[in-house]
Design a protein that fits this description.
Subcellular location: Membrane
Main location: membrane
Strand order of the largest sheet: 1-3-8-7-6
Keywords: Disulfide bond, Membrane, Signal, Transmembrane
InterPro entries: CD300_family_receptors, Ig-like_dom, Ig-like_dom_sf, Ig-like_fold, Ig_sub, Ig_V-set
Number of strands: 10
Oligomer: single chain
Structural class: mainly beta
CATH topology of the largest domain: Immunoglobulin-like
Number of domains: 2
Helix content: 10-25%
Protein name: Ig-like domain-containing protein
Shape: globular
Radius of gyration: 22 Å
CATH class of the largest domain: Mainly Beta
CATH architecture of the largest domain: Sandwich
């Protein structure tokens, strides 16, 4: 019985933890988020990619962006990807997040048979991370608007700046 269980485990999890990364990342609409997935040494020369999970029963990829083999950054739309074989790391950046970007994505490595991949959940929060409070601002432009900033993040004015 035990040999059957071991065989089943080997078939089901052939490259367990061959690719790892953050389980979840998050940002606000308009933000840029970055993440890194690491992979095992034996995957160093394989093609790396980032894609959105699609499919209801079987997981598939859509919108796949492939890393260049020379280590240079590849950009497609708002997604940039770069493989760093020296550090066994895949770098991914998503720019100008929208609510529609929320979902599940794969850091993946192509190989014969089933690819090695890691599932990452992206959460996107509505609005922006800035709050408007009287007496807050970053400079003269905000002070001229009765100390209400509306188009960027800011820090509280010091008492000297408020005078």
């Amino acid at each position: 019985m035990w040999p059957l269980v071991l065989l089943w485990g080997c078939l089901l999890l052939p490259g367990y933890a061959a690719v790892v990364g953050p389980k979840e990342i998050s940002g606000f609409e308009g933000d840029t988020v970055s993440l890194q997935c690491t992979y095992k040494e034996e995957l160093r020369t394989r093609q790396k990619y980032w894609c959105r999970e699609s499919g209801l029963i079987l997981s598939r990829c859509s919108g796949t962006v492939y890393a260049r083999e020379d280590g240079e950054e590849t950009t497609e739309g708002r997604v940039s990807i770069r493989d760093s074989p020296q550090t066994l790391t895949l770098h991914v950046t998503l720019r100008k997040l929208t609510l529609k970007d929320a979902g599940k994505y794969f850091c993946g490595v192509s190989k014969l048979g089933l690819d090695e991949s890691f599932l990452v959940s992206l959460l996107v929060f509505p609005g922006n991370k800035c709050l408007c409070f009287p007496g807050w601002g970053t400079g003269d432009r905000e002070r001229k608007r009765d100390r209400w900033a509306t188009d960027q993040c800011w820090t509280p004015l010091s008492p000297r700046q408020q005078a």
